[in-house]
Amino acid sequence: MRIDAVELRRVSLPLAAPFRTSYGIEHERQAVLVRVAGEGTEGWGECVAMTEPLYSSEFADGAALVLSRHLAPRLVGRDVTAEGVAEALAPVRGHPMAKAALEMAVLDAELRGEGRSLGERLGATRELVPSGISLGIAGSIPELLDVVAAALAEGYQRVKLKVEPGWDLEPTRAVRERFGDILLQVDANGAYTVADIDHLAGFDDLDLLLIEQPLAEDELAGHAELARRLRTPVCLDESITSARSASEAIALGACGVVNVKPGRVGGYLEAVRIHDVCVATGVPAWVGGMLDTGLGRAGNVALAALPGFTLPGDLSASARWFDEDLTEPFVLEDGYLRVPTGPGLGVEPLPHVLAARTTDIDLIRP
Ligand code: NPG
Fold first, then answer.
1. 151 lines ligand 1 (CB under 6 A)
2. In the chain, what are the helix, strand and coil shares in percent, each to the nearest 5?
3. Residues 197 and 213 reside in one and the same domain
């Protein structure tokens, strides 16, 4: 399609409850939304960079700037396909989350034009995907047990606990003892070092599905050593930035499971390529979450419906994060989320919520 204009919208949504991880605490979800318009159609994308550069080096203000100055100008006034977006943006180094948002918007627009859903385009084979929940670091073990109990009562099929040094084996053991045979995993967001391997081996008697990103993003050799020493499968998140890096990490033995987040890897199309690498190498994969609004959630649910995503994703109902989502909310149906079937993402921002939550608009034209 020929792109006539790119609109960048800064939005800020209060979180239903604060979310604490090893790198900080979130109270609101700031995001940069991208709307592309051209040839009588339009499409939406969401940039998942957080307010501060704590998960990765990208952050919302920086993403808005690089989108406005360096990325959107490479597409406006041009004829591009979704497949061609990554190549058109390749001269700009890095910034995968910003690039992913533009590709997502072009993909949505293209599919709306064709009357085809994103799930169909990506290769979804399921109508419903199992819903997992990610629980932040709690104030105390009794508090954690209460939130886990509430999540299970709502129907979540798998529980992920955020851990960090000082909040790891004991709370995880308490959850395992109290709730028995649930699907349970932990996520450290790189908070440990190879010096902690003996300590991390303490997770081995808790029958976890996996331990996610225990070491820093660039410590592939360290993760490989850890994977040799632990019975618990090591899953990589931050370290996997492309299909190539996924292949390398798998070949090195640095992970036995892969978390795929479209924003982290530059978009849905690269996410599918990582899925394909995982299928080809027999490595289980699942779709991560970034406190996405309904736009990103719609895309992630569609992606998670591909056959190689064999583990439940961080795909919660909208209400897990927002009292009022930007789109019609995603709701749990017996522990599953339904894959949208409408054209493109199958959802769009509700005009009154979008208007109320927008803090800034920037229009880029040729
Ligand atoms: O369900 O959307 C969700 C959140 C899942 O815990 C989750 N995401 O490290 O994977 C993560 C974590 C995260 C949160 C990452 C915020 C980045 C920002």
1. no
2. 40, 25, 40
3. yes
